[in-house]
UniProtKB/TrEMBL annotation:
Record family assignment: Belongs to the 'phage' integrase family.
Identification of the protein by name: Tyrosine recombinase XerD
Reported function: Site-specific tyrosine recombinase, which acts by catalyzing the cutting and rejoining of the recombining DNA molecules.
Domain Core-binding (CB): 17-106
Taxonomic source organism: Clostridium omnivorum
Subcellular location: Cytoplasm
Cited PROSITE patterns: CB (PS51900), TYR_RECOMBINASE (PS51898)
InterPro entries listed in its UniProt record: CB, DNA_brk_join_enz, Integrase-like_cat_sf, Integrase_catalytic, Integrase_recombinase_N, Integrase_SAM-like_N, Tyrosine_recombinase_XerCD
Any Pfam family: Phage_int_SAM_1
Signal sequence, renumbered to the chain: none
Keywords for the protein's UniProt record, in alphabetical order: Cell cycle, Cell division, Chromosome partition, Cytoplasm, DNA integration, DNA recombination, DNA-binding
Domain Tyr recombinase: 136-325
Gene from which the chain derives: xerD
Domain of life: Bacteria
UniProt xrefs under CDD domains: DNA_BRE_C
Amino acid sequence: MEDSSLIKIEPKRKLSTFVIPDNTHFIRHFLNNKYKKNEHTAKSYEIDIKEFFKVNMVEDITLNDIKAVTVFDVEDYIIGLIDLGRASSTIHRKVSSLSSLYKWLLKYQDNSRNISLIQFNPFNNMSDVKPTLTHDDTEFLSRDEAALLLNSIGTESITDLRNKAIIGLALITGARKSEILNIKLKHITNILGYDVIRVTRKRGKKDLIKINTHVKDLIMEYINRTGRSIETNQEDYLFIGHSSNKQNGEKLNPATLNKIISNYCCKFNINKKIKVHSLRHTAITIAIQKGASLEKVQAFAGHESAYTTARYVHSINKLQDNAGDLIDVFED
């Protein structure tokens, strides 16, 4: 059986580009590199890769398995996902995950000896098979709904206090789910008199998010109630589990965060499908409605492209300054 840790070059010398440090499996090495940039993305990649190759661990996948995949296998895979009713965005993400693995493997080549690990990426150029990508409008809250949600949450229990701090942080900063989950106590600081939190944006970009006094007070009360301090527990994740299951004291997972928000909306009769991204959308929308410039909103949201921010502005302008408002065909 072929060595699944990557590839062995038996002639006189080994190619350093084919050697994986500490004898790590090649896909695990790929995922470890992704993990350094974005933990959530790396976990999604791993799930997608294991699903496609039908294995429990990526270490069970060999280089021969990688080479055996054809465009027909990929087409069948995509059609199968469509038949299962998977969202177009989910299908595109899964194909992108697998394509990224193949693109990474294509780098491992040696021109002097005409050696390469793989020759072709079967997940590339699948636009004719992939479903048309649709962007369903994300539900978000009005300013009044956001205030209702936040102010209705008590702080008597440790979980309610934690959840109120999470929701307040999301509404005030527009932070992404992964950014919130990965905050450690050492990331909370003060710069030039402003309370800020250091976060890691998409593609590993480091950034600062400013928090107001209300959110800072909630966070500090939560830290104190958990018996911790920023000085002595710097490596602790800020938001942790408080149940008797295995998550007690551990970092929250993404699914838990969305469930928390959904439960509160149901409790307070907010009849919308609200997730962490919905709170981010809410924060951006309120900032635009209050007159924040495109440049300020882009920096606030951590958007890499002004085009992404402009989509929010366009959606709001389309409602506030609508051509239909000029059409008067009804009698008074």
